[in-house]
Amino acid sequence: MIDMHAFDVLGDPVRRRILELIADDEKTSGAVSDVIRAEFGISQPAVSQHLKVLRENGFATVRSDGPRRLYVVETEPLRDIDAWLGQFRRFWTPRLDALATEIARGRREQRLSGEDGTDPKQGSDR
């Protein structure tokens, strides 16, 4: 097994894209390969190597279904990364909360002024 740091694994845009592809539901290696080859212009063996790195480092699991190999995201390493990132959330969470407040304020002002296409005298169903 390759002993790579999680951020080394995720530092590669091809591997991040593969995880995006298999995040919602399992995909065949062929389906993953088709998308990655089209988007990144790499060979099928190169895609297989990226799948292998994800598998060997615990980010993906594979199961056989007859001749097909189906890949799915393994969540444990991602939870570990999320936990590590937790110590830094304090830097951006207040800013994101402030941004959400400003966006809501702007929408309210648009609604009250009628700039959003509604009649301010009739109110809105939103």
Automatic annotation (TrEMBL):
Pfam families: HTH_20. Residues 1-93 form the HTH arsR-type domain. One of its GO terms (molecular function) is DNA-binding transcription factor activity. Residues 107-126 are annotated as: Disordered. The keyword Metal-binding does not apply. The keyword Transmembrane does not apply. Keywords: DNA-binding, Transcription, Transcription regulation. PANTHER family: TRANSCRIPTIONAL REGULATOR, ARSR FAMILY, TRANSCRIPTIONAL REPRESSOR SDPR. This is Transcriptional regulator, ArsR family. It comes from Rhodococcus wratislaviensis. The lineage of its organism: Bacteria, Bacillati, Actinomycetota, Actinomycetes, Mycobacteriales.
